[in-house]
Give the backbone structure.
Amino acid sequence: MYATAKDGTRIYYETAGETGTPILFIHEFGGNYDAWEPQMSHFARRHRCITYAARGYAPSDIPADLEKYSQAIAVDDAIAVLDALGIEKAHVVGLSMGGFATVHFGLTYPDRALSLTVAGAGYGCEKETEDYFRGVSLTVADKFGADPAGFAEIYGRGASRVQFENKDPRGHLDFVERLARHDKVGAANTMRGVQARRPSFWDLEDKLRACTLPTLVMVGDEDDHCLQPGIYLKKTMPASGLLILPKTGHTLNLEEPVLFNLHLAEFIAQAEAGAGGLRDPRANPAQVMRAD
């Protein structure tokens, strides 16, 4: 099935489950719609689940024009998928690139989200690494543009991916094979248009502080580039919680599917029960302790 974006780009999506509140899953750069299968299968028992291929990822359309790729466009594409299904609000769950889209979804369309789950997001966010990340993104774009299959073997075994390979070699092999199927044009344009241009979380501080949506931030403790951004989101977003998974890298939902599903299910249940509200002001570490 396809949704139609504002500019006419077709966005492929799949659904599972007929009842319950909707959950929208947004994939990372290294994944695609099918990388959410452990979550689609699990949550479809009690929820209406949706996953989709971002523009630039088959079977969605792959625009050749770089200007058809941006962080704002990525968020509008997510809205287009919900609109195609007639869904007013959903729990929004994103990993890495999809985690950035989830944050921006909540900031841009807070009335369309029931909650936000931001997993493995933040690489390149810290101000001291911002320029370096942009340079790396452009290099990765060139590499995927030249040889997706060959570069997938390198990219898929980066410092925050080897944890997945060590725990689950078969699952990791599927991940690398999926990565090797990236379209040259789509992967390069996604890196150049979305990844290299996206704003740092630190540039969004005022908007993040104003976001009162229940938010779960997930990060692996060996996903070094995402740890501090994850802590920053926790400290900045007033209704957020932070989950750090031990001995875990970047590909959280595939590397630790049981833990990911367990904590996501509990978070969604709390959000639907109205228990995902603002932090209790008594928990503010800056308050003065009274002696009486």
User: Anything to note?
Assistant: The chain has one domain: 2-276. The CA atoms of residues 68 and 193 lie 8 Å apart.
